[in-house]
């Protein structure tokens, strides 16, 4: 927060002068040399990151004077060594948030080179005042030098830190901007959305030095906890090209979320025609069932233009999870991607879908699911991984989901995983539409024909022709129109009608969110 240019004067001039001096020392952070060295590495310092993230002039710092004071023999103040946690509140697009940033220029941002009460206080404030919380993490974790400060050890705990209660109450964001080890890693991961800077950030239990001592293994920090590692681990949702991109992703994520579970998500003025119908959608799904297509192009066409924000693109790639808007209303989006594992439900995809369903349900976002689900991943690798358990957890999340939900069946919907296209228990309406290209059942026709008619196909003069003949016969029986005759599907729609139907639906879905009783204040 910029300070007014006030000249110390009057009866308290001495104290006011000291206040300005202490504030200046806090703003100096780790000092000119440390700041210059950090800048030379191509990174923004903690205060620059805060300025980049929040609205200009909106940062109101808390605890700026916390640190280690130095005094002369007469007890007069000389200088302040500030703590390496900068905390306070600010605004993003006018909306209030709480945040704290690690200052790497002071003891490499070590979590034990600060006053824990300071960063815990801002998190408690976020919880009690129901403010979204952002952690800008650049921390080397614990330090053995703490032993010299306290003359002993401590049990590793922060009993006053409301980490789990925060996750139940407000949107929490973790941003990895450097080496985030130990407690720093937990601050990134204990969140609803996390993002890390490629090649610059690492998220790990402990750094290479600790690993070398424990396992006699030499490993590079990026190989240990960099973005390529977490593409596989799914610990961190997104990756960013640079710090500016990471902070922009934070701003965008929060633009879809409410202040807390006690508030409504922000609806923006409509900027796109709800009746817009892109003609190419009629041919978006290839007639050849073995050909793939680009589901992201379909999502971009149906949702408000420019509103799609994907979460976790590089993990569990057979399912896409995103936030978007329909006629200005924020919604959660799920879609299968046939380019990855054929769109099948893998263990990682199940975890990703479960996580997204819970996020949308907790914060009152209606959900649209674009379905092309061939079923659970099969094979030895899938069974050893426990894929079916992941799918079972998706079913549990759907059962508990409080969000209004609609499914658009675009192509396939088979087996147990296909049954997980939306909530359908208790009072949940099985609200679903299908495109003419959709097919469903207990097993895909291609695999089912070979399993049921193996001997007949292999004994035919032309096995390939016989198989094609049988597949055609069964496919005719799986026409979605036959299901519509029995009202097993709400309606078959022209793909070009999808946006208009969803924009009409979201009006009622949003009215339900507003009056459902989940909003307590």
Automatic annotation (TrEMBL):
Source domain of life: Bacteria
EC numbers: 6.-.-.-
Keywords linked to the UniProt accession: Ligase
GO molecular function, one term: ligase activity
Membrane-spanning segments: none
Domain CoA carboxyltransferase C-terminal: 273-521
Domain CoA carboxyltransferase N-terminal residues, every copy: 12-269
UniProt-listed PROSITE patterns: COA_CT_CTER (PS50989), COA_CT_NTER (PS50980)
PANTHER family the record matches: PROPIONYL-COA CARBOXYLASE BETA CHAIN, PROPIONYL-COA CARBOXYLASE BETA CHAIN, MITOCHONDRIAL
Protein name: Acyl-CoA carboxylase subunit beta
């Amino acid at each position: 927060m910029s300070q007014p240019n006030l000249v110390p004067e009057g009866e308290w001039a001495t104290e006011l002068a000291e206040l300005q001096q202490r504030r200046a020392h806090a703003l100096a952070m780790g000092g000119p040399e440390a700041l210059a060295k950090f800048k030379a590495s191509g990174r923004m310092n903690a205060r620059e990151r805060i300025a980049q993230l929040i609205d200009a002039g909106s940062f109101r710092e808390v605890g700026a004077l916390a640190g280690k004071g130095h005094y002369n023999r007469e007890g007069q103040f000389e200088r302040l060594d500030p703590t390496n946690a900068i905390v306070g509140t600010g605004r993003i697009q006018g909306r209030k948030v709480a945040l704290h940033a690690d200052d790497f220029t002071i003891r490499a941002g070590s979590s034990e080179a600060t006053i824990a009460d300071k960063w815990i206080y801002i998190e408690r404030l976020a919880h009690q005042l129901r403010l979204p919380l952002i952690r800008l993490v650049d921390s080397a974790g614990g330090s053995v030098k703490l032993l010299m400060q306290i003359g002993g050890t401590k049990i590793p705990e922060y009993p006053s830190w409301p980490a789990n209660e925060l996750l139940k109450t407000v949107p929490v964001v973790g941003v990895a901007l450097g080496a985030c080890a130990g407690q720093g890693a937990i601050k990134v991961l204990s969140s609803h959305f996390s993002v890390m800077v490629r090649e610059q950030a690492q998220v790990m239990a402990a750094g290479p030095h600790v690993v070398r001592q424990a396992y006699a293994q030499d490993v590079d920090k990026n190989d240990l906890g960099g973005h390529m590692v977490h593409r596989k681990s799914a610990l961190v949702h997104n990756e960013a090209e640079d710090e500016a991109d990471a902070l922009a992703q934070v701003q965008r994520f929060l633009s879809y979320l409410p202040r807390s579970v006690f508030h409504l998500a922000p609806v923006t003025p409509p900027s796109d025609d709800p009746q817009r119908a892109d003609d190419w959608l009629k041919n978006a799904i290839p007639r050849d069932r073995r050909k793939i297509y680009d589901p992201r192009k379909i999502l971009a066409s149906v949702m408000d233009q420019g509103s799609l924000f994907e979460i976790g693109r590089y993990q569990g790639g057979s399912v896409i999870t995103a936030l978007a808007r329909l006629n200005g209303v924020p919604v959660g989006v799920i879609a299968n991607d046939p380019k990855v594992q054929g769109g099948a439900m893998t263990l990682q995809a199940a975890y990703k879908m479960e996580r997204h369903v819970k996020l949308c349900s907790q914060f009152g976002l209606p959900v649209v699911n674009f379905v092309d689900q061939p079923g659970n991943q099969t094979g030895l690798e899938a069974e050893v991984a426990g894929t079916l358990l992941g799918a079972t957890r998706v079913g549990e999340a759907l059962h508990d989901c409080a969000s209004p939900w609609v499914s658009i069946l675009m192509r396939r919907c088979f087996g147990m995983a296909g049954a997980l296209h939306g909530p359908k228990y208790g009072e949940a309406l099985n609200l679903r539409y299908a495109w003419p290209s959709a097919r469903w059942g207990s097993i895909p026709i291609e695999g089912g024909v070979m399993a049921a008619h193996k001997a007949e196909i292999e004994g035919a003069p032309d096995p390939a022709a016989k198989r094609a003949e049988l597949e055609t016969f069964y496919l005719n029986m799986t026409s979605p129109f036959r299901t519509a005759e029995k009202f097993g599907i709400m309606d078959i729609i022209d793909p070009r009608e999808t946006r208009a139907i969803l924009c009409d639906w979201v009006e009622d879905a949003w009215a339900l969110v507003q009056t459902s009783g989940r909003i307590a204040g």
